[in-house]
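Researcher: Sequence recovery benchmark, item below. Answer with residues only.
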């Protein structure tokens, strides 16, 4: 009970309304900056930037003025007549870079161009221009017309040309219909009906079709894009000799690291695919984040939800550490500088209890700041992106199935895990404050240590061989956002080290025990000067 009273007195001594308001203001500013910065990273939707309308309009104007055209110029004029309305269509629809209509429109244009080329080829086989192109002995051609003609005269007989022409007509009819109907699920249905999907894409495609998802910006459509762009699951790795000859050897320290990384990646991909499928089937937005180094075509396929914003609370740990460094570095040294230590130790309380109560206060102080940060970032995310997502379940994959868990309970569990490395930081602060009895020095050192994780992750990701030893220190785990979010720095480091959260917790616990024990010995044995 005496320890509880001492902890209470620490709060009474160190807490006031002004201090809490300043801390809250810092957390509000930090949460807004962190949320908006992350939003910019994920929200990569942009309007289609491949506008070639000026080029084709100029080409059309130039060729339409000529009295006589070569076969290639006739082809270019025909292409201009196709691409001018296509670009107009893109602008009118305000299509995003991820829009399926863009691919369909270009495939439609390709089919039209190829059929036009087939007609030219069939009608002008004896034309010198055609003969010259057919006799070119090269794989490089100055224009798409030359390449297409050369391909036709060397790859097809009359019957095959007719079959290709009819097949293209089917594509033209189908794609024209798809663009007119303008429904995403009909496009996916077309892919399924024409066997253009991989086997494991069937279930999520059926979910898109059954839910009649119309827009590419619907989260279920983005789920689909995320799903099909995940790397394939494969156990067919290089053997050690093949690995040593491949480009992969530059990414990994050893063959063992290569196998370990890809085995874990497979597990992650399986989990992500199951969550994406469940999310689409049950209309629940997931909060997965995809690393650009492993998620092909990631840009534009992620969606930013309130949960995505609130998940950044792990990165707030750095702000929390800085606040604790500034507000609590004097926790022991101030007692000596003001002389109040003499009053404390003359009280009928053992020194270890005094020290323990201060450490408990420090931990509770940190939790309070972090929980205020969680409340602040939740409120901002709710007002900014909507509160609804925050009340939907967290989707996790475990024991071969996806289950729904209360989002905030799961988040608090992860925050508790993330707090163990943070407490290791507190033990360093506690140790410095006790050993140096210099508040300014303790504040300076711990503030520098609090921002080290970002620098360390960068060094380890970009200069692995020189700085890989840093992954064995507790400093790499102060900001668990890199780990829980599986961000690019973290996944890059994983290629050359078996860095894991379990190791981080273990090394943090050892740090806490060792430093607190040393601090306790120093505090108990220190002589108090008059």
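Model:
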């Amino acid at each position: 009970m005496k320890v509880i009273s001492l902890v209470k007195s620490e709060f009474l001594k160190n807490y006031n309304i002004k201090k809490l308001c300043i801390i809250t203001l810092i957390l509000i500013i930090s949460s807004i900056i962190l949320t908006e910065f992350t939003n910019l990273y994920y929200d990569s939707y942009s309007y289609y930037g491949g506008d070639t309308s000026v080029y084709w309009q100029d080409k059309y104007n130039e060729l339409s003025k000529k009295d006589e055209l070569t076969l290639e110029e006739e082809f270019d004029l025909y292409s201009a007549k196709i691409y001018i309305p296509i670009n107009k269509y893109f602008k009118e629809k305000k299509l995003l870079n991820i829009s399926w209509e863009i691919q369909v429109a270009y495939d439609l244009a390709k089919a039209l161009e190829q059929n036009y080329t087939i007609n030219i080829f069939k009608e002008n086989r004896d034309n010198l221009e055609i003969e010259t192109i057919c006799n070119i002995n090269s794989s490089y051609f100055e224009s798409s017309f030359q390449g297409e003609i050369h391909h036709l005269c060397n790859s097809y007989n009359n019957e095959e040309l007719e079959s290709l022409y009819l097949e293209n007509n089917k594509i033209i009819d189908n794609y024209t219909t798809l663009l007119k109907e303008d429904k995403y699920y009909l496009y996916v249905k077309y892919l399924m009906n024409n066997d253009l999907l991989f086997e494991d894409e069937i279930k999520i495609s059926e979910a898109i079709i059954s839910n009649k998802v119309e827009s590419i910006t619907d989260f279920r459509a983005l789920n689909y894009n995320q799903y099909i762009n995940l790397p394939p699951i494969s156990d067919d790795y290089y053997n050690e000799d093949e690995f040593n000859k491949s480009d992969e050897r530059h990414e990994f320290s050893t063959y063992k690291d290569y196998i370990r990384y890809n085995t874990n990646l497979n597990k992650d991909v399986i989990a992500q695919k199951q969550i994406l499928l469940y999310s689409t089937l049950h209309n629940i937005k997931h909060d997965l984040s995809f690393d650009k180094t492993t998620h092909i075509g990631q840009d534009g396929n992620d969606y930013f939800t309130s949960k995505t914003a609130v998940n950044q609370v792990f990165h707030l740990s750095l702000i929390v550490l800085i606040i604790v460094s500034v507000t609590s570095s004097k926790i022991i040294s101030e007692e000596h500088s003001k002389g109040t230590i003499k009053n404390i130790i003359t009280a009928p309380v053992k020194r270890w209890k005094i020290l323990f109560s201060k450490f408990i206060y420090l931990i509770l102080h940190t939790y309070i700041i972090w929980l205020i940060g969680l409340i602040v970032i939740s409120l901002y995310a709710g007002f900014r992106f909507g509160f609804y997502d925050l009340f939907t379940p967290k989707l996790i994959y475990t024991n071969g199935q996806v289950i729904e868990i209360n989002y905030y309970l799961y988040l608090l569990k992860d925050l508790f895990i993330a707090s163990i490395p943070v407490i290791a930081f507190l033990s360093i602060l506690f140790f410095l404050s006790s050993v140096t009895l210099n508040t300014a020095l303790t504040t300076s050192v711990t503030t520098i240590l609090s921002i080290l994780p970002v620098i360390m992750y960068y060094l380890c990701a970009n200069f692995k061989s020189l700085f890989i030893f840093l992954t064995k220190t507790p400093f790499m785990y102060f900001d668990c956002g890199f780990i829980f979010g599986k961000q690019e720095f973290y996944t890059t480091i994983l290629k050359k080290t078996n860095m894991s959260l379990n190791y981080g917790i273990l090394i943090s616990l050892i740090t806490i025990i060792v430093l607190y024990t040393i601090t306790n010995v120093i505090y108990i044995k220190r002589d108090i000067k008059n």
